[in-house]
Design goal:
Blueprint: E1 2-7, H1 13-24, E2 30-34, E3 50-53, H2 60-71, E4 75-77, H3 80-85, H4 88-98, E5 105-108, H5 131-138, E6 142-146, E7 156-158, H6 161-168, E8 176-180, E9 186-193, E10 197-202, H7 221-238, E11 242-250, E12 253-258, H8 268-271, H9 273-293, H10 305-312
Parallel strand pairs: 1-2, 1-3, 3-4
Antiparallel strand pairs: 5-8, 6-7, 6-8, 9-10, 9-11, 11-12
Helix pairs in contact: 1-9
Length: 317
């Protein structure tokens, strides 16, 4: 029997619906259950053919346990090694090489010194930075947000340099991004599963959280194809098996605003019934596919084109 485990935290509707959906399909020798960890010994298999990870971004113990699981043959969705290495600034840098439109973005050092460092630790960093050039590049209004992580935490809209310095002083040891504001006509949040299943959802980030999926933009067939191509290109290069991409359309051009969401919101109450049913069905199908392909004792992780091409010494594109 090949077991598919779902590793999750406080959320309930998606993990339990995913488990129920997988088991309801009645695939011979495939079953699903919540992951249970009773001990963690180095080099020992996890007992799962596939693990669907929804929480290790917040729990370091889970992240390192998943790496051992992957080493001993588990297909982990998403790859915990890449997820550990990834962050939003690098993703933006990669998109500049792939031809994906993105907002102008600069990275900003933390306002406070990191723990166990001193001024001497930053001998190579100019002080002050060339703020005039940075602000001219991004322009105002601009958004400031952490270079990694998600959940709309520590995100600021800034109208001028004075507001930047005021808000930056509140960010403590967070490394921040300063990003051009894209004033959009349409906005979409897009699920991508298995780098092949794509669900485009109208989204309005300016609404209250519980109303963001109430938007009803109507993209043309050409725009849908354009957005699907962008989403697949992003996920194929990053290597994510489950992710959401946010695209803001300005003057007919979809800009990738946020595309590092490997544990995206999938709760029924927030995404709505239709989107919820889609993500449960396709996540279940993909987890089953990975379980059927999984081979004990070998590397069953999936890797993105960026890593594969770099390792092979091939051109990026």
């Amino acid at each position: 029997m090949k077991k598919i485990g779902v590793l999750f935290g406080q959320e309930r509707s998606f993990p339990m619906a995913l488990i129920e959906k997988i088991n309801s399909k009645g695939i011979e020798n495939i079953s699903a259950e919540p992951v249970r960890i009773e001990k963690a010994m180095q080099g020992e298999p996890s007992g799962y053919a596939v693990i669907f990870d929804r929480i290790s971004q917040d729990v370091p113990f889970y992240r390192t346990w998943l790496k051992n699981a992957a080493l001993t043959g588990t297909a982990v969705i998403n790859n915990p090694f890449w997820w550990s290495a990834d962050e939003k600034y690098f993703n933006n840098c990669l998109m500049t090489k792939l031809g994906v439109p993105i907002p102008k973005t600069a990275i900003i050092p933390s306002y406070e010194l990191p723990t166990d460092t001193s001024n001497e630790s930053f001998s190579n960093l100019a002080y002050p930075l060339d703020w005039e050039s940075i602000f001219a590049y991004t322009g105002f209004p601009a958004y400031m947000k952490p270079y990694a992580g998600g959940g709309w935490k520590n995100v600021y809209k800034l109208r001028n340099a004075e507001e930047f310095f005021q808000k930056h002083a509140e960010t403590e040891q967070l490394v921040m991004l300063l990003q051009e504001e894209i004033i959009f006509e349409e906005y979409y949040r897009i699920y991508c599963i298995g780098r092949k299943y794509v669900k485009i959802m109208s989204y309005e980030p300016r609404n209250a959280h519980h109303l963001r999926y109430a938007a009803d933009f109507k993209p043309s067939a050409e725009r849908v194809k354009q957005m699907e191509d962008i989403v697949l290109r992003i996920n194929n290069y990053l290597g994510y098996d489950f992710n959401t991409v946010e695209l803001a359309v300005r003057d007919g051009v979809p800009y990738a605003i946020d595309f590092c969401n490997p544990a995206p919101d999938a709760e029924r109450t927030s995404v709505g019934e239709e989107n919820f049913e889609w993500v449960v069905e396709n996540a279940a199908n993909y987890a089953i596919e990975r379980a059927l392909e999984q081979v004990d004792g070998q590397d069953n992780l999936s890797w993105g084109e960026y890593i594969k091409r770099s390792a092979a010494g091939q051109p990026l594109v």
